[in-house]
Amino acid sequence: MRILVVDDDVTSQTVMMKTLCEFGECVAASSGEEAMAEFNHAYDIGSPFDLISLDISLPDASGIDVLKTIRAVEKARTVSRDRGSRVIMVSSFSDHNRVIGSVQAGCDHFIVKPFDRASLLEKISQICGLPLKIKKTI
User: Fold this and answer.
1) 2-128: CATH number
2) Backbone phi and psi for residue 86, each to the nearest 5 degrees, phi listed first
3) Which of 34, 36, 94, 104 has its CB 3.0 to 4.6 Å from that of 29, i.e. a possible disulfide?
4) What CA–CA distance (Å, rounded) separates 17 from 103?
């Protein structure tokens, strides 16, 4: 699985990368512009991202706007919705407008920071259709 982690907060990005790297190759981006460059490059080389973890608040763009652009690029490349990247929106806020805006833009799931590893892995399993084994911590 190829995974793109988009977050401008170094700590959040590191935690997400550490959690997801065991499932495949992870690439990091810290801004909307960087995320779109990585996303487009992945398609250009014939190896698109299977999963994208996308922070809703980025320094140069709204994560919702980035998601809309991702979905528009997929549509322009004639990638059907069921074959496109799975996107988990990540936010410190869970207000109604952000959640609804994310869903309307085409996210597959929404997770609130801080999150626990088991919850994140369960969501990934649901949206990617993967049987993930969750290690329990003592």
Assistant:
1) 3.40.50.2300
2) -85, 135
3) 34
4) 23
The 3-class secondary structure across the chain, one letter per residue, is CEEEEECCCHHHHHHHHHHHHHHCEEEEECCHHHHHHHHHHHHHCCCCCCEEEEECECCCCEHHHHHHHHHHHHHHCCCCHHHCCEEEEEECCCCHHHHHHHHHHCCCEEEECCCCHHHHHHHHHHHHCCCCCCCCCC
pLDDT of 41 higher than 80: yes
At residue 113, the pLDDT reads 86
Per cent of the chain over pLDDT 70 is 93
- Cβ atoms within 10 Å of 53's Cβ, excluding its own: 27
- Could you read off the pLDDT of 81-104 as tens digits, one per residue? 889 999 999 998 878 888 999 999
